[in-house]
Amino acid sequence: MKKINMTLSTSLLIIMVIFIFLYGCGKFQKEILIPKVKLQELIDKKFPYEKDVVVARFTLSSPELIFEDKNIRMKLLYNSSFLNKKISGYIDFKAQVIFKPEKESFYLTNFDIINIEVNETNFSNEDKISSTIKAMVNNYFEDYPLYTIDPNDVKQNMTKLFLKDISVKGDNLALLLSL
């Protein structure tokens, strides 16, 4: 028997034909799950993050991902020297996950602060710290993907064409593919 060597493009073509057939039968719907553990590993590689801002130097570290509804929450430890004062604490964000097909990647965006803890007493500039860290995180994640599709994985490549919804299911990021 001869072995048939298929290229990636041939495989994609065959899968697309199958999907079109299933679409005609009204049956194509596939869910791909990306485990929280995998996403946490990818996020951990991006930290610590240091940034000088006009009157302060911030360090963000120890990210913790928390899955919730369609959102992902991220809790970060921050340290800052702000107007010659050492300040530290935790900040808890809620973010949305979006897919940018042109970059074949998923990104965290639209960070909203849920809670901020300042470990120092008698500190009155909590709003200034909150807005500075929020801007830093939004700018930082604008260019850094949460997850990038593997170009050699046929299933992941189908995401570009058929992604209909992104949600959180338990400890997984759920991608709903549908025609």
List the helices and strands and how they pair.
Layout: H1 8-24, E1 29-35, H2 36-44, E2 49-53, E3 56-68, E4 71-82, E5 85-100, E6 105-118, H3 126-142, E7 147-148, H4 154-162, E8 163-169, E9 172-178
Antiparallel strand pairs: 1-9, 2-3, 3-4, 4-5, 5-6, 6-7, 8-9
Short description:
The protein has 179 residues and is α+β, with helices and mostly antiparallel strands.
Keywords:
single chain; 179 residues; alpha+beta; six-stranded antiparallel sheet; three-stranded antiparallel sheet; 4 helices; 46% strand
**Shape estimate:** elongated
**First CA to last CA: what distance?**
36 Å
Q: Spell out the helices and strands N to C.
A: HEHEEEEEHEHEE
Mean pLDDT: 82
Uncertain regions: pLDDT < 50 for 5+ in a row?
A: none
User: What is the count of DSSP helices, taking H or I runs of 4+ residues?
Assistant: 4
**Helical proportion, percent range:** 25-40%
Please tell me about this protein's structure.
- With 179 residues, the chain is of the alpha+beta class.
- It contains 4 helices and 9 strands, in the order αβαβββββαβαββ.
- The strands form 2 sheets. Strands 2-3-4-5-6-7 form a 6-stranded antiparallel β-sheet.
- The model has no long low-confidence stretch (mean pLDDT 82).
